[in-house]
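Q: Is it fine to ask for two folds in a single conversation?
A: Yes, each is treated on its own. Send the first.
Q: Here.
A: Result:
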Amino acid sequence: MHSLKTRLTAIGLAVPLVLGMAGSAMAQEDGGSNPASCSYPGDLTGGKSLVIVIEGLGDPSSGFFRTLNNGAQQAAKDLCVEARYIYPQGGSFDLASYTQQIEQSMAAQPDGIVILGIGPLDDVAQRAVDAGIAVGFQPAPSVKDQALRAPDDIYVSRVGADEYAGGAMAANRFITDGAKSLVCVQQDPADGTQSMRCQGMQDVAAEAGVDYELVAGSPDPGQTASILEPFLRANPEVDALLATGGSSAPGLVTAKNAAGREIFTGGFDVLPNLVELIQ
């Protein structure tokens, strides 16, 4: 094992570049770089061969996780470290299986692990730190909860958007444009970051005195459309829909078109197909 000081230096710089971003069966997409081809000034690794595991949640061949993995691999190349992106086969996950995935990575003793905050993961992160593995976390805590990172934080870095604020901003935009009945369509009900987006929307709606409802969607846009089409027919007052993930957003547009009425739509993650819909 390399010294913890070396790991902290590499991870602390790698995570912002990466994220400025299951069961026992897992798939892996390896990356890495040739130290002689590093593009970052100076040798941050001290000549060591460092391995960072990115604990993904989805196939990196498309969507948000493609963006996440591409960033990880580029950061690894720039910093002369190896990034290994792993994710659950089959595309399904919950907090227990994701924790198990992290524990399996810990058994291989990488130099660092980056975990995605889908729920309470401090316990498994602390075990990793106790085993000499540096841990990064995404997203950063909401400003309303924790404005500054605690000096004794178990994570060497917390990077990402303020998810609660994102949902609140979406609700404020809808309400400013005249919406009176808001619906948050949670793409992955088990994803804590998406829950924070919906919570931000719900709190703003309550403060403004407009209606709010949470609907469980799906990463599959076709399934999301199938869920929303009868919902919109049964609830003609709904005039704003927010998708908490990029892959489900086209399903909102399909359902809105089927409803045949004006409905504001919004979402997260700027994916190529969403840019096309906006254009």
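Q: Second one now.
A: Result:
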Amino acid sequence: MDIDANKNIYIAGYCYSSDSDGLILKLNSTGHEVWNATYGDASGSDSIYSIVVCGGLLYVSGQTNSWGLTSSRGFIALYSSIDGHFMWNFTWNGPNSEDTIVDLQIDRHCNIYALGSSVEPALSSMISIQKYNSTKNLLWKVDYYGPGDVYTGALLLSPNQDRLYVTGGIDNGLMTPQDLFLFKYSSEGNLLGNWTWDYSDNDMGKNLLIDSYGNLFIIGDTLASTSGSDAFIMKANFANSGNSPFSNPLDLFILLLILLIIMAPALTILIFIVYKKRRK
């Protein structure tokens, strides 16, 4: 989802009849539909995973095997954000049989930063970080295979647009639990740092956020308990003189407990007021 300067809302996903098509919805600030558009044809399945609005332009990415493709490919497509008409698209064919452009970021010059995933089911997976200019020309590409499978999470361009962060999950191919990874690149594709984080079994970074002070937050999940996976949010600290930027995450249960403790006096007063009114 993305929101433009006029508070219009853009939502991406897929719709399904006989096969799935990528779906784009534009809603105004009151939630009423302005227009909708689909991506794909009747011959294959298509899904949109990322959407970014840039002025009068709307960029989407995902996975397609329409138009006679014999395997799934990642794609990037451009639409008008004004009326939803299709402008252009291109596909990415990775080294494996199931390719997806999972996430997108657009800079002030409308250069496109893309995070791709290429998977061979039951065999291997890798990720690809790519930069294209506004006319679809590839400027640079960094492929990462890792010692084992690599799973894509999210891509984030820093507010001043000189840093690019990538997160996801990685294993070392030795049947050990999956670790969260964080890569830091310059806007020109130079690796500035890479870290892994092992909190428990199968840790995965799924989203990235930067606040107004430049603090980076990682949101994901971990198999930290026997009952299943737990969600977490973690703040990365890059002032650690080259050491790991990771600290212990805040489990969402702990966050809720803290909020309840903070709100307890107000809740007590509210319950007392309601009780007194009912007694009257």
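Q: Anything structural to flag on that second result?
A: Two points. Helices lie at 252-279. DSSP finds one helix and 20 strands in the chain.
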